[in-house]
Structure formats: structure tokens, C-alpha cells
Amino acid sequence: MAKRRAEVVNDLSRSLVPLNMDTTLIAVVEMSQSSWLVGGIVPGVERQPLKKLAIDERALLELLLRWRAEAERKGHRITRIAVAFEAGHDGFWLARWLAAEGIEPHIIHASSVAVTREHRRAKTDRLDTELLKRGFLGWLRGERGHCKMVAVPTLAEEDAKRPSRERGVLVAEATRLITRLKAAFVRLGIRGFNPKLKTAPERLGTLRTPSGEPIPVNTLAGLKRDMTRHRLVKEQIREIEATRIERLTAAPAAGTNAMVRLLARVVGISVETADMLVQEVLSRNMRDRRAVARYAGLTGSPDESGAKRREKGLARAGNARVRLGMIQLAWRFLWLQKDSALARWYRQRTEAAPGARKTLIVALARKLLIALWRLVREGVVPEGLQMRPAA
Fold first, then answer.
1. CA-CA-CA-CA torsion for 60, 62, 65, 69, nearest 10 degrees?
2. What sign has the CA pseudo-torsion 213, 216, 217, 220?
3. What does the DSSP assignment read for 102-158?
4. Among 12, 95, 81, which residue's Cα sits nearest to residue 40?
5. 62 assigned to some structural domain
6. Tell me, what's the pLDDT at 87?
7. Spatial separation of the C-alpha atoms in residues 323 and 299, rounded to whole Å
8. What pLDDT shows up at residue 35?
């Protein structure tokens, strides 16, 4: 019986397309908020051109086409134009626009480009362009270790992450406002008053300090503004949550909705957590379980040299939202999934070493993330996992 060939997943650590230097025009773009510096390698042209442009995608396309025409005048028929630039605040719009124009775009992980470790190294746009060019060439040749690329999402995939991320920002803002309100009441000596109540703004006028004085006028006005702001933020959070439920109910099998509904059936995982995990990591095309753990930043960072062996802690090089969410979920998982194999594994490891609880919770978060990845990808239910019945 013939063995089934494993699916090859491109992890973007190297190019899988053979590079032909005679037919490939290579360009890198060093982007800033005021200009773009474009460096190129043009077949048949000995010099390596460098051109500074205003922030204009049309001007960039015209420059690439002009370089292609120059190469063809030298007798080189260009069949591939590869352009690379670092990931930054510009996001992915330029990569999508170039792809629509027939250009092959690549976005480089900024932290994956090797730089000199001198204390005061020279840093200019021209030198950065040369570094990008060197790393991009090695990547195009199919060699590992030069640089790593970012997967370019579609506009719909990028937009699907917005509700969860916006909700996270709003929750943090609501927490900040409540903390500030409580601190103001403590500063006035007023305790036992709950600023979250609906009637809190109306009751402010009745509050008195320990000396029997009312709240000062300016402080009272500031407290009312903060309460109004907090109420608005909470309304926006409820609106986001209601819209998500409507979307999942209206199209339960569309896109990633099936993954979200399956994950939300796990006891201890809310719809919000399920949506965040699916949109941020579980819907991505990962190579294997190690890639899943690395993307979440839940792997270690060993420091080994000669006889020295030490662990510097979490790498923290991945998605911070996933890492924070998984560590919180791991603690919750121990309480709500006590009979699962993962919870039993954690209790066995920490029973004789209570001081290792915080260290091992990261290991549990990593194992749990991989288990959830296999659940939504392969349908493998972890041993002892409690799930709600399908709706």
C-alpha cells in the first residue's frame, strides 16, 4: 500500500520557487513616513540602481517597469518582478496592490534581518536597503536563515480580526476609567460607592466627604464625564458582541464561523475567546504544532554556550494577543476542565513542586493551544475534554 504524501506547507522561511537571475528583476523598498528608497538588481545592468521616491505606489510601479524595459534592452526577457519591504505601520495594502498589478510582493519580518551588533552601528536608509537586498537575495535562492516573510492576508481576513481587537481596546479603556474613578473616590475619602451602577451619576450629588463636605465642583464635573465615557464604552462593547452573535447565527458555516462555533462548545471557552483564537492563529495555515507554539510566543529562549546552560524565559516573539489569551485560558481550564488529561498532567507535575506552577502554566497553555489547533483542523477531541452539545 502506497504511503500518503504529507502536505508541504510553506513556512515562508525560504522561497520554494527556483530563482533565475537572468529573468528576475529584484527590488527592495526602505519605507519611511516621508519617502521610499528603492534599490534594485536589474539583469544585464552592472550598476545596482537606487532611487528615492515620494510615497506613491504609481511612481513605484513606473520605476519597476522602467527597470524592466532597461533589462530587456540589454537582451534579458523579464518574467518575474520580486519586490520586498519590511513589515511596518503601512500594513499590507501595498503588497495587495502590487499583486493586483502583476508584481510578486513579499513582506519581510523586520526582526528577522541580521544586523551588526556594534554598539553604535551606522544606520541610514541606504545601508538598510543593502541589508534588505542581501537578505532578500538569500531568501529567493531558497536558503534558510537570511530572513523570514510575513503571510499577506486578504482584506477580508484582515477585517475579520478587527472586532476582537477593537473589543480588547475598549475593555482596557473601560478598566482604566473605572480605576481612575475609584482612585478619585478614595482620594476624597469616599468608600463603598460603586461607579458602575446606572444611577451612579445621579447619586454623585448626595455623596459627602468624611468632613461632611460635598464633592468639589470641578472634581464632580470630571467624575460625571468619566462615567459618561465609561457608559459609552460599555455600549460599544455590547454592540460588538451582539454583532458577532448575529453573524455566527446568520451564517454558521461561512468562512471561519464553523471553527468558532466548534471551539465555543468547549466548556470554559467563550465566543469571544473562540473568535480571537480562530482569527488570530487557528485559521492560519501552519506547518506543524511547533509552528503554532512559536507563533503564539509560547516557546522558550535557551542561552547555551560551552558549559553554560540557562533558559531566558518566553521568547515573546509571536502574537501577544494569543499568548495572553492562552495563559488566561490555561488558568481557567484548570478550574472548568478538571478531569481532562491536560489538567491531570499539570496537577501531577506541580504536586511535588508547587513553586513551578507559574512556569508550567505556560507549558499547559502551549499544549492546550496545540490541542485546540488539532480539534478545529483534524477534529481530534482531547482526552477528557468536556464539550457542550451542538446547537
1. -130
2. negative
3. T-EEEEE-GGGS-----TT----HHHHHHHHHHHHHHHHTT-TTS--EEP---HHHH
4. 81
5. yes
6. 92
7. 10
8. 94
Same domain, 188 and 246: yes
Out of 104, 131, 152, a domain closes at: 152
- C-alpha–C-alpha distance, residues 272 and 58, integer Å: 40
Residue 361 contacts residue 327 (beta carbons within 8 Å): yes
Residues 74 and 140 in one domain: yes
Please identify, among 195, 220, 250, the residue that sits at the C-terminal boundary of a domain: 250
CATH of the domain at 68: 3.30.420
Distance from C-alpha of 10 to C-alpha of 108, rounded to nearest angstrom: 15
**Structure confidence by residue, pLDDT tens digits, 322-351:** 999 999 999 999 999 999 999 999 999 999
My answer on whether 222 and 302 are in the same domain is no
- Count: domains in the chain: 3
Indicate if 286 and 348 belong to the same structural domain: yes
User: Residues 26, 32: contact at Cβ < 8 Å?
Assistant: no
Half-sphere exposure of 5 (CA within 13 A, CB side): 3
> DSSP class of residue 389?
P
End-to-end CA distance of the chain: 41
